[in-house]
Specification:
The complex is a heterodimer of chains A (385) and B (169).
Chain A: E1 5-12, H1 24-38, E2 48-53, H2 65-72, E3 79-82, H3 88-101, E4 107-115, H4 121-125, H5 138-154, H6 160-172, H7 187-191, E5 195-198, E6 200-201, E7 210-219, H8 220-223, E8 231-240, H9 254-267, H10 272-275, E9 278-280, H11 288-295, H12 304-309, H13 333-349, E10 362-369, E11 374-381
Parallel strand pairs in A: 2-3, 2-4, 9-10
Antiparallel strand pairs in A: 1-7, 1-8, 4-7, 5-6, 8-11, 10-11
Helix pairs in contact in A: 3-13
Chain B: H1 3-9, H2 28-38, E1 43-47, E2 54-55, E3 74-76, E4 79-88, E5 101-108, E6 115-119, E7 131-136, E8 149-154, H3 162-165
Antiparallel strand pairs in B: 1-2, 1-3, 4-5, 4-7, 5-6, 7-8
Classes of the chains: A alpha/beta (385), B alpha+beta (169).
The structure holds zinc ion.
Chain lengths: 385, 169
């Protein structure tokens, strides 16, 4: 039987385009120390460190975890690096949780980051392989044809993505940590922004951010003694599938459907839309909100856009999504998944300040990555299962 | 002072350091056969022995069933159907194509996997289901690369029905 585990501390940096005042290590130390302070711990109380980030080629520093663990304060502690492309932040949280759930450690710290100002992600992702024509321009170039596929099969109105983009940027105004603070954001502004990878417009894409997010997790016997609020981990799930195989449904991969079904089963949830109070979902391009509402079995197939359209996913809707502003408002790639997990935990701890959903008790954190083939999710609650 | 000049006169915070990795790349048995064929203007796919689906380009084994394709080879037409596409207006360092360009996921006739390539057509004409054919480089420029195909171009055939390609999106 797994050891019941809780999130007891969360730390984040401010997300912004360029953090020139700190090194990579300085950046993640900032998040780690804030998480420790929130958990009322010091490095002495931490048994192990889990570090996550997206491909090393982004910053051009190979296996940075080898020096980072020492540099942030985790010297001589066991350390594990996690790497599952864009979903890595979520996987980092899950690996950290598993260290406690399995009884190996009592209390761990996980941290995930990206310093995009020192990197060129689109270059790193636009790989030119020998013997082939290079034509896929970064993540946008890869996902735009899939978005078009979703639009065709669902019959969603063309402006669904614009509505997601406006909603998430409005939510970001509630979150002082969010990178984009667009006070004048409007439907017209997004609609008139340049088409980058048709059908994806500039303002329907995520920014490039520097930032780090950290969490402290500990076993039940420690967490139960705390007077402060903790987030109990009810279920975690990770699924993946090959990027290319014949008949692969790239718009709605089997891995996301299996991930969702198994996550809810573990958490004892049968009606996710009713039983979850809110969700923080990985939406790097606006259209992935309706796509993952279906991929996470929140709604019926080809109906996800209706949730956006009817305002269900809005801050005051019946199923708020991306209260923090989401990936569309801050994207330190490697950290982005962990930020989603952290936001879910902040909500159920009741510590989400201006972006708190009143009375949130159970929340979903979600990340995906690669060519829509890695999925990491968790459900946290203010109450023990 | 412009922001750029200010930055230029301020302290150096970030240095751009080009990196390179030189390595010998071996295509392997299966890809070598595919590449030698494409150097002769032929498009070779391989059939999965488990479900009979034709992979193009093939890497010699099936990612679904974990079996080798062995010596199997299926010659494919250079005509196909656009299953989905995007019009790219963003420059990317590794990509030499002039902007905007149309990137297409093409299902070649006889294949069961998509080929990602580019299309030469009026931007307003491109659509899902459009029938296209490869335009090859002059024969004397052919090498062992999918870049032997310069691009695809629309052909005068009726659109493929959505049902015939929808599972490849
Ligand atoms: Zn097979």
């Amino acid at each position: 039987m797994a050891v019941l585990t809780a999130v007891v501390g969360i730390g984040q940096t401010k997300y912004e385009a360029k953090r020139l005042d700190v090194s990579m290590a300085g950046l993640i130390r900032e998040a780690a120390e804030r998480a420790l302070a929130d958990a009322e711990c010091t490095w002495r109380d931490i048994d192990a460190v889990i570090i996550g980030k997206a491909p090393d080629l982004f910053e051009g520093v190979m296996m940075p975890e080898l020096f980072l663990n020492d540099a942030i304060g985790g010297a001589y502690k066991p350390m594990l690096r996690v790497h599952t492309a864009g979903s890595v932040g979520g996987s980092t949280g899950i690996v950290a949780a598993s260290m406690v759930q399995s009884g190996i450690h009592d209390r761990v710290l996980c941290v995930a980051y990206e310093k995009q100002s020192e990197s060129n992600a689109t270059w790193a992702l636009s790989i030119s392989l020998p013997f082939s024509l290079a034509s896929v321009a970064g993540a946008g170039g890869y996902f735009a044809p899939l978005v078009r596929g979703y639009m065709r099969r669902s019959g969603a109105p063309d402006d669904t993505g614009i509505r997601v983009a406006v909603k998430d940027r409005q939510n970001a105004l509630r979150n002082p940590l969010a990178h984009l603070q667009m006070k004048d954001i409007s439907f017209e502004m997004v609609a008139n922004s340049p088409m980058l990878w048709d059908p994806i417009r500039h303002l329907e894409t995520c920014p490039s951010s520097d930032g780090a997010c950290a969490m402290v997790m500990e076993k039940e016997s420690l967490a139960s003694r705390r007077s402060g609020k903790v987030a109990w981990i009810h279920a975690t799930e990770m699924r993946s599938e090959p990027t290319m195989f014949s008949g692969r449904d790239q718009v709605m991969p089997q891995a996301t459907l299996d991930n969702a079904a198994n996550l809810y089963k573990k958490a004892g949830i049968t009606k996710p839309r009713e039983e979850l109070d809110c969700a923080e979902i990985y939406v790097p391009f606006s259209w992935f909100e309706p796509m993952w509402m279906e991929g996470m079995l929140i709604t019926e197939r080809n109906q996800g856009w209706k949730m956006t359209y009817e305002g269900a996913t809005a801050f005051d809707g019946d199923f708020p999504v991306n209260m923090s502003g989401g990936v569309l408002s801050s994207n330190p790639i490697g950290a982005s998944g962990l930020i989603r997990f952290a936001e879910a935990a902040r909500q159920v701890r009741g510590l989400a300040d201006q972006h708190q959903i009143d009375g949130a008790k159970k929340a979903l954190g979600h990340a995906y990555g690669g060519g829509s083939q890695y999925f990491s999710t968790w459900i946290v609650s203010s109450q023990k299962p | 002072m412009s922001a750029k000049e200010e930055q230029a006169s301020g302290p150096v915070m970030v240095l751009s350091c080009p990196i390179s990795l030189d390595y010998a790349y071996s295509a392997g048995q299966s890809a070598s056969r595919f590449l030698r064929a494409i150097a002769e203007g032929k498009l070779l796919g391989q059939r999965c022995p488990v479900d009979g689906r034709v992979y193009f380009p093939s890497r010699g084994s099936c990612p679904m069933h974990g079996v080798t394709f062995g010596d199997d080879a299926v010659e494919l037409s250079d005509k196909g159907t656009i299953v989905t596409f995007s019009i790219v207006r963003v420059p990317s360092q590794n990509i030499a194509l002039p902007l905007p360009y149309i990137t297409v996921n093409v299902l070649l006739d006889g294949a069961d996997t998509i080929l990602i390539h580019v299309l030469d057509a009026k931007l307003e004409d491109v659509h899902m289901g459009m029938r296209v054919q490869a335009v090859w480089k002059p024969r004397e420029e052919w090498t062992t690369s999918t870049a032997n195909i310069l691009y695809f171009r629309p052909i005068d055939e009726p659109d493929a029905k959505y049902e015939t390609y929808k599972e490849h999106i």
